[in-house]
Amino acid sequence: MLLTHYEEIAAVILFGIGLTMLILNRNMIKKIIGFSMTDSAIFLYLAAKGYISGRKAPIVENGITAMEAYINPIPSGLVLTGIVVSVASSAVLLALTVRLYKRYHTLDLDEMTRLAQAEEAD
Amino acid sequence: MDLWQSIPLLLVILPLVSACLCPALPRRGAQVFCGGILALSCLAATIFMPAITSLGASYTYSMGHFPAPWGNELRAGPLESRMSWFFMLVLLLTFLGGLRCLNHDIPEKKTSVFCATLLLIASGLNAQVYTNDLFTAYVFLEITTLAAVSQIASRPGGRPLLSSARYMIMNMVGSSLFLLGVILLYDLTGHLLMSPIQQSVSALVESGQYHTPLTLVVALITVGLGIKSALFPFHAWVSDSYSQGTPMGSAIMAALVSKGYLFLMLKVIYRVIGRENFAATGVDTVLFIFALLGMVLGSILAIRQTDLRRMVAYSSVAQIGYIYMGLSLNTDAGMMAAVFHMIAHAVCKSMLFLTCDGLIAVSPSSRLRDLEGSGFRAPLTGAAFTVGALSMVGFPFLGGFSSKVNFALSAVDLQDPRTFLVLAVLVISTWLHTLYFLRAVITIYRRSPEDTVSKGHLHRGFCYSLSLVMLILLNVTLGVMSQPLINVLRSGLTLFG
């Protein structure tokens, strides 16, 4: 039964990959990709949990107002809000990366630290 | 519903809307505007305190008039009102104190944006204090984080940029874990409002179902918030972030931003999971061990520093350890001590970071040995630093002493093996604190042989002096007259759950 929850399994695997990338990868762009993956995985999980098979998106159509016709709108709403937050965070991190690249001409975080220390020692 | 009951909403909305207007203003205008809004928020929080005390209860404020399980709510009580007041007051005083160095620390065209981030932090803090909805808490958590990142990055140079990137990455890890915890909890309980979640969680714990997922949720939320507030093993970003920002930015981040996350943690323990359920997961034991390690190792890391700002930054790790220790004891006295220490540490650390910068400004560099005699060149700054350092050490009549007494009393109340452990670590940690803070105080008051090479006297203006004097007074008040505040916090905590 557990194995048929394909979306949830995919979400957990994606979250693991994303988090590992975010923490362990030294490349800034890959870190940002990892971050986006963790957030997307959470949204996938949420969307999968919020879906009730056989029901439609919570937009009233053809005058059908019966509650049973539609899925719960709150998880979808949360996903939307979460996407906005995630986009804002990625944007700030990307902007920082651009400024760092302009200054150090590398995307490697360890290399940047080394250059910054060398700069300070001068 | 009376008009004053809308003040929590005002405290969230007013800085948020003002932050949108702020970047459009010229430099000077933005500073005045930002100061005005902060003063207004502080005033509103001041009016709110006696009103909520006379009400004698906490109340929920539902937004958009949707009833309980669906809508979005704010909840206010005596504890929240005090917390929000202290946050706003310290923010205002830090703003006044850091205003002068802001002008030469960051480029002119960025000042307006910097003021906007300050207002965003104010809004985020108030939202974290007052919200009764877990997802709203997450959103404002992120707003606070992004604002804090831009505060560090606004200083020119490579190091601040690099520190802000590191800070941001660690915080993103924390946010992701927190979000995952919240979503799993929503999945388990079907609620986002805190009080309904607690009912469902209690029902789950009683029936014995979903024990592992529940433990996972608590662990994820705790680790997420722990990373964001620099709990011991996740503290690697602290020294760079706190020492590279503008003095105002460092003071706000160390004193307030981390306290917002801690208050949210308190809320999770009390209102979302419930204290018994939190203890049932066993996460409190892990937290207890991390906190004790942080109290000792944070101080040891601070001793090894040769740079004044880094030293003060690492002492935050130890102090955050104290707060987590209080939370993990999971007793009334422990919780009260933790909340009191959040306030005492906020008041003290903001002053320390402001004065650090003042002392460095009259010295050749920020290294400890170059600071000799700086206490004489900047007398008020030196005095304020001494007061802050003594308070951190736990000198009587200062805020830090009251919180150490509270922690010790809460440990004695335990009557189990943890009592001895907590008392022993308190003693060791106090001793280590004394070692490095007194070393710093002695250094700044040692007359260097070549005192003639001093960089002259400090000119920071009236606002800086006013803010330092007010912060010193606050510290002394917290130490001498702590009992009324303790009583309010104690009664506030009973209404908090």
Helix-strand layout with pairing:
The complex is a heterodimer of chains A (about 120) and B (about 500).
Chain A: H1 6-24, H2 28-50, H3 73-104, H4 109-121
Helix pairs in contact in A: 1-2, 2-3
Chain B: H1 7-21, H2 27-55, E1 59-63, E2 72-76, H3 78-105, H4 111-130, H5 134-153, H6 158-189, H7 194-207, H8 211-228, H9 238-244, H10 247-273, H11 275-281, H12 283-304, H13 308-329, H14 332-361, H15 374-377, H16 379-393, H17 399-414, H18 417-444, H19 461-480, H20 482-494
Antiparallel strand pairs in B: 1-2
Helix pairs in contact in B: 1-2, 1-4, 2-3, 2-4, 3-4, 3-10, 3-14, 3-19, 3-20, 4-5, 4-10, 5-6, 5-10, 6-7, 6-8, 6-9, 7-10, 8-10, 9-10, 9-13, 10-11, 10-13, 10-14, 12-13, 12-18, 13-14, 13-18, 14-16, 14-17, 14-19, 14-20, 16-18, 16-19, 17-18, 17-19
How would you characterize the overall build of this protein?
- The complex is a heterodimer of chains A (122) and B (497).
- Chain A is mainly α and 122 residues long.
- Chain A has helices at residues 6-24, 28-50, 73-104, 109-121.
- In chain A, helix 1 (6-24) runs antiparallel to helix 2 and helix 2 packs antiparallel against helix 3.
- Chain A is elongated and about 70 Å long.
- Chain B is mostly helical and 497 residues long.
- Chain B has a domain at 295-497.
- In chain B, 78% of the residues lie in helices and 2% in strands.
- Chain B has helices spanning 7-21, 27-55, 78-105, 111-130, 134-153, 158-189, 194-207, 211-228, 238-244, 247-273, 275-281, 283-304, 308-329, 332-361, 374-377, 379-393, 399-414, 417-444, 461-480, 482-494, and strands at residues 59-63, 72-76.
- Chain B has a two-stranded antiparallel sheet with strand order 1-2.
- The radius of gyration of chain B is 22 Å and the shape is globular.
- The mean pLDDT of chain B is 88.
- Classes of the chains: A mainly alpha (122), B mainly alpha (497).
- Chain A binds chain B through residues 15, 18-19, 22-23, 28, 31, 35, 38-39, 42, 45-46, 49, 74-75, 78, 81-82, 85, 88-89, 92-93, 96-97, 99-100, 103-104, 109, 112-113, 115-116, 119-120, and chain B through 135, 138-139, 142, 145-146, 149-150, 153, 158-159, 161-162, 164-166, 168-169, 172-173, 175-176, 179-180, 183, 186-187, 192.
